[in-house]
């Protein structure tokens, strides 16, 4: 069943317009009587039935509420060092499918990509569209937010606890052990460096900000793999991906 995120608060009868209406009418060619899932702006999830169609609008009416939440109990914010090429497209898509709450693109010293303000905003808008599509496909209850491109210093000014950084030089502290020490966990900020790794100055800044460094295992992972692997491990350890509390 297809899921749509609506910008209006929930009502027993609602009207879908814009790109979603185009998708329902022109792309999916849904008939009157077809059922869809919606998530309203006040985060009500429900099954709705198409009651009428016009050229540019789909009218839907309430069938039943969706009580089960599709969201993890732990909020994961992925702070991703900017990678080159199209890698960020993949990262934001897969992170959304797994269940992150937000994604912060990080401008780091060894990032190959250097985005000026205007270009950075255009990229952010592109990533937000990819996230929205991934949220629909994976039946999320929210659309995660892609935040503006920021620096480590700005990140640490906004968050000051439960920050973990995957660091290839860390040989002894596992992600699992750090997660156990943090329980109960409500929110985690996960920092993943870019292809070039994390600079010494950034490591020092992170240490002074109370960041916990973790190993993701004996093998060196690419930046587009590391975040996905770490998110999956966090969800497993917190009982949200086949794990057990």
UniProtKB/TrEMBL annotation:
Localization of this protein: Cytoplasm
Residue ranges of every copy of the Ribosomal RNA small subunit methyltransferase E PUA-like domain listed in the record: 17-59
This protein's name: Ribosomal RNA small subunit methyltransferase E
Domain Ribosomal RNA small subunit methyltransferase E methyltransferase: 71-234
Family: Belongs to the RNA methyltransferase RsmE family.
Organism: Candidatus Avacidaminococcus intestinavium
One Pfam short name: Methyltrans_RNA
UniProt cross-references to SUPFAM superfamilies, sorted A to Z: alpha/beta knot, PUA domain-like
């Amino acid at each position: 069943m297809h899921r749509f995120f609506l910008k209006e608060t929930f009502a027993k009868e609602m009207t879908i317009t814009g790109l979603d209406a185009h998708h329902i009418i022109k792309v999916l060619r849904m008939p009157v009587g077809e059922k869809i899932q919606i998530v309203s702006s006040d985060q009500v999830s429900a099954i709705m039935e198409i009651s009428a169609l016009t050229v540019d609008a789909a009218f839907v009416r309430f069938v039943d509420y969706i009580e089960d939440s599709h969201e993890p109990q732990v909020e994961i914010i992925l702070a991703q060092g900017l990678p080159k090429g199209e890698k960020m497209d993949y990262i934001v898509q897969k992170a959304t499918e797994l269940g992150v709450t937000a994604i912060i693109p990080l401008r780091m010293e060894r990032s190959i990509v250097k985005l000026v303000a205007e270009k950075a905003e255009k990229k952010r808008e592109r990533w937000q569209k990819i996230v929205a599509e991934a949220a629909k496909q994976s039946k999320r209850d929210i659309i995660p937010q892609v935040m503006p491109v920021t620096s480590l210093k700005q990140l640490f000014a906004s968050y000051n606890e439960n920050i973990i950084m995957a660091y290839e030089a860390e040989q002894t502290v596992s992600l699992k052990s750090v997660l156990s020490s943090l329980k109960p966990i409500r929110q985690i900020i996960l920092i993943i460096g870019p292809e070039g790794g994390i600079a010494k100055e950034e490591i020092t800044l992170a240490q002074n900000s109370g960041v916990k460094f973790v190993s993701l295992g004996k093998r060196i992972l690419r930046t587009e793999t590391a975040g996905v692997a770490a998110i999956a491990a966090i969800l497993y350890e917190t009982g949200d991906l086949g794990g057990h509390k």
